[in-house]
Amino acid sequence: MAKRNPLSDNEKRLNNLARDYETMRAKGESVYMEPDDLADLSLWYDNNHYPEKSDEVMEYALSMYPNSTMLQIEQAYRYLDKGDIDSAIILSNQIEDDMTGDLQLLKARLLIENEEYEKADELLNSFPPEDLDPIMVANMYMDAHFSEKAIDWLKQHGQGLEEEEDYLSILMNAYCYTGKYEESIEICEKLIDKDPFSAHYWLSLCRCRLALKDYNKALDACDFSITNDEDMGEAYLTRCNLYVLLGNLKKAKENLQQAIKLRAVEQGEMNEMDLALLLDQEYVEDAIKLMNFYIKHIDFTEEQRTNTYFRLGVCYAHMRWDKNAFEYFDKVLALRPNDAEVLTQKAVIYMNQNDFDAALGLLQLAVEHEPERIYLYRTMGILSLLKKRYDDFRKYSAKSDEPLTEYEINEAIYMVESGDEASINFLMESMRNNLRY
Question: Measuring CA to CA, how many Å separate 55 from each of 10, 32, 43, 60, 79?
Fold first, then answer.
């Protein structure tokens, strides 16, 4: 079945660039392309799930144009995408150019990555607004996972751009990532009116419907996404998830296989975006369904399988299905016996069961394995207080990151001795909040 949505001029250009590049490289000949074309080609390979080829093109581009500011900035962002902040900072400091808007955005992003938020704001506000593209700034905030900042910047600096697709597309995604799904759907439908053949817009609409637990309408939108682009692997993966949630496992497996065929699923990967939407909305049972499906049908590495066991344990604990939670936490501990986070989460379950001795034992093990978790001493102190082990209460309080004064210690002991139920309930809730995952 042919795609209804023909290739755009830009997609044709990129396909031709890829063909020319691979032909020339196969012949061992130099490839003569402009820096912009090489950067676009590298991104095209990355978007089509060929990361090695993407790296190869960027390395070749930099060997051809070592002083290209644009390519150096692109490479710095690639370091950021891989979590190599130090290399990105080193490269940004080596760029010998005036503080152009692009370089300014990169430096602002690096400040954000280092949690220097005020400095990032100062840097962005130090340039005249006309020197900064509001769309580019909003995109930078989205890449840095600051969706609210992206919304604010567009509202403040995007006057006159409100009907442009780039503006609306960023706003649509930002609203979705901040949980404003109805607002995101409204913009998404506006964008679909502008471009009814956009597979990406239909998939965005699908995910907003998924977040609202309207799975049948989400499936309809996902179908339109695939109709418009039969090679969009992530749409098949989302449709797989929807079929799991709707109970059609046969269809789910078919779509998973198609997603794998289209390289939308690398070894052991799950659809993190859809899973995050479910967990953000606390659709925990549905998240459990997805993860159990993944465990059965995706070839996890040992680390990925272990991490999924941990997430399942957290979900089951949230549902107060303690037996299931213990089962998956114990699977993690069988592979990572010194995992302090798992020990802490098991302790929370015992606390909820009022088995304070078991909880204390696990917290002691956790802090032994990771001494930097000194905040655990607060909870250990409260547990000792509730057990009327006042010497231990004093000992753990002194070791915690927020040690109590002698007056506060005596007040806490008095509350317990007097049997003040409201105060004891407050202590219990404080203890749980300190450990909540």
Answer: 21, 18, 9, 9, 11
d(CA 147, CA 139): 9
Which CATH number fits the domain 339-437, given the four candidates 3.30.450, 1.25.40, 1.10.3210, 1.10.287? Answer: 1.25.40
For residue 436, pLDDT beyond 60? no
Residue 4, token pair as written in the block = 């209804």
Closest CA to 172 of 209, 208, 137, 141: 208
DSSP string of 128-192, one letter each residue: -GGGS-HHHHHHHHHHTT-HHHHHHHHHHH-TT-TTSHHHHHHHHHHHHHTT-HHHHHHHHHHHH
Checking if the pLDDT of 277 tops 70, the result is: yes
Instruction: Quote the CA–CA distance of 421 and 175 in Å, as a whole number.
Output: 43
Mean pLDDT of 113-140: 87
Asked if pLDDT for residue 253 goes beyond 80, the answer is: yes
**What is the Cβ-side half-sphere exposure of residue 169, based on CA atoms within 13 angstroms?**
15
**Interval 390-401: pLDDT, tens:** 999 999 989 988
Q: Long-range CB contacts (< 8 A, 24+ apart) of 363-370?
A: 365/340, 366/340, 366/341, 367/340, 369/338, 369/339, 369/340, 369/343, 370/340
For residue 1, what pLDDT is reported? Answer: 29
What pTM, to 2 d.p., does this model score?
A: 0.76
pLDDT for 219 beyond 70? yes
Q: If you write DSSP's letter for every residue of 380-412 in order, what string do you get?
A: HHHHHHHTT-HHHHHHHHHHSSSPPPHHHHHHH
